[in-house]
Every structure is written in C-alpha cells, then in structure tokens.
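Researcher: Re-running this chain for the archive, since the previous output was lost when a drive failed. Same request as before.
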Amino acid sequence: MESTVLRAKLIVLGDAAVGKSSLVQVFHSDSQQGFPKAYSMTTDVQLQVKSVKIPDSPYTVELYVYDCAGQETFQPFISKVLGSSALVLVVCDLTNQNSVSAATKWFERARNANKDFKPQKLKKLLVTLEYLTL
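Model: Regenerated structure tokens:
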C-alpha cells in the first residue's frame, strides 16, 4: 500500500508564559520526557515538524507547528505566518484571568489574518493549562 503524505500548518498562539512552547515540545518528543524543566521564552516564531502515521491507513500527516511568541512586540512576525494557516491552537492559563480573557483576542487575530479562508474552514482549538505548585 502506497503512503500518502498530508501536510498541515498549525499556529500555536496565546499570551506569554502560558505553556505554548512546553506543549509543543512535549508533542514533538512524543511525551517521552514530559514537560521540560528548563524554560526559555520564545522571542519570535519557532518551527517544529512532526510526522504522524495514521494507524490502519495509507496516510501520514506532516504537521508544521509554528510556536509563536506571546509578547505584543513580536506580533509583526506572527502576522506573517498566520496568513496561510488552516489550524490554530490557542493556549491559555486557567489560573490567570487575563490569559483566559485574551484567548478571544488570539482567535480574532487568526481569523483576521486568514481572510482567504472561510470561517468554517479555519479549524480552531482552545487548550487550557493550569499550573499546580506542589
């Protein structure tokens, strides 16, 4: 059976320090090492590529994951990659009301940058993270 590669562009958005990069790193490494202990703030847009074979099918999904900085200073960089995305993942911190409220802003930015897409074609997902101090 010949394999078919499907490609998709996923943009990960959200306020600074909500866990976007950690989430992307865990996904990229297949969660084998858990969430990273060392943290380095994203200062632009970082690309990770992950191929996932769909079980019992001839399909492999090649996912281009763009991890975007959450600070306003970097919005010009983010606007450039948002334009052609079909998937948007917005991450927020449930313990921070400002972060939760800002999720709408991030969805709006993605929709405004994707004027070529019909609203129903832009796939959106909200991920909420809660940090627990032990």
